[in-house]
Amino acid sequence: MKIATWNINSVRLRIETVCRFLAEAKPDVLCLQEIKCRNGEFPEKAFKQAGYKHIHVVGQKGWHGVAIVSRVKLEPVEAPKICPKSEARIAAAKIDGIEIHNLYVPAGADLPDLSNPKFAHKLKVLDRMKALYKKRKGQTPTVLVGDLNVAPGEFDVWSHRQLLNVVSHTPGETDRLNAVRDLGGFVDLARLHKPDPEKLFTWWSYRSPDWTKNNRGRRLDHIWATSDIAAVSQAEAFHIHVPVRSWERPSDHVPVVAALKL
After folding, report:
1. Centroid of chain to Cα 95
2. Which alpha helices (DSSP H) does 40-116 contain, by range?
3. Residue 70 is inside which H or E element, if any?
4. Any known ligand binding at 147?
5. Which of 6, 125, 138, 199 is buried most deeply by CB count within 10 Å?
6. Residues with catalytic function
């Protein structure tokens, strides 16, 4: 089973790009974040024509929103309530006995201080995730994916020193996200297959005049698996699709793909 995750930054705006990726990478399951549409506005027809007939959408007008599309049958399941504002930030489904949790953690805006309500909201979401996934540990084989909006390690950013006080890499965020992973019994598949000190990025700012030249990226998009699932993850199939960032009208994120030999 090949599972992909991608913050698409408006699925309707970039549906042609998504279909191109599906045709080239051929994942069995694609988890999208920041779809920016309500359930009835999701472009189901295009996905079904591409062979992804099984769809679970948790949408929201104008903002946020997540979706799971699959070649094989999926069963929507109740997702942990990670967001105190009840925003559309998580979708969960069971496929072949495995639960797939697709998350979109708040970005937190620019100021890494509790006086910034968006940053405070982000920390609350991460704290909820710690408690909820700790309770779930050992219950169900799970793959957790998504734009978690935190680059947790020294080699997940272009400059650890310069970004320590920049939202997405502050200790308050990285400590919380690493605790979610450990308390939930998850393995970070990126670092399982591509250990430190290799630098891995999945996001490059739109503000950069030439992202390829300065390569000031961050690894904000993740695929984790409980240890039983991580054991059947295939190293050669893990891939960050960096060239997608240069496609026409790109998202600022690129897809990440992992494969499980079930």
Report:
1. 18
2. 44-49
3. strand 66-70
4. yes
5. 6
6. 104, 147, 253
Q: The pTM is what?
A: 0.97
Percentage of residues in the chain with pLDDT exceeding 70?
A: 100
Has residue 209 got a pLDDT over 80? no
Q: How many residues does the chain have?
A: 262
Q: In this structure, are residues 65 and 37 in contact, taking their beta carbons and an 8 Å threshold?
A: yes
Q: Residue 182, annotated ligand binder?
A: no
We report the CATH number of the domain holding residue 157 as 3.60.10.10
What strands lie across the sheet with 221-226, from one edge to the other? Answer: 75-76, 90-95, 98-104, 142-147, 221-226, 186-188
Residue 117, preceding bond cis, omega within 30 degrees? Answer: no
What is the residue range of 216's domain?
2-259
Instruction: Work out how many domains the chain is built from and give that number.
Output: 1
Residue 139 pLDDT level (bands cut at 50, 70, 90): very high
For residues 245-253, average pLDDT: 96
What per-residue confidence (pLDDT) applies to 62? 87
pLDDT tens across 29-47, in order?
Answer: 999 999 999 999 999 999 9
Burial environment of residue 194 by CB neighbours within 10 A (0 to 12, 13 to 18, 19 or more): middle
7 annotated ligand binder: yes
Helices marked H in the chain: 15-25, 44-49, 117-136, 160-163, 171-183, 189-193, 211-214, 227-230
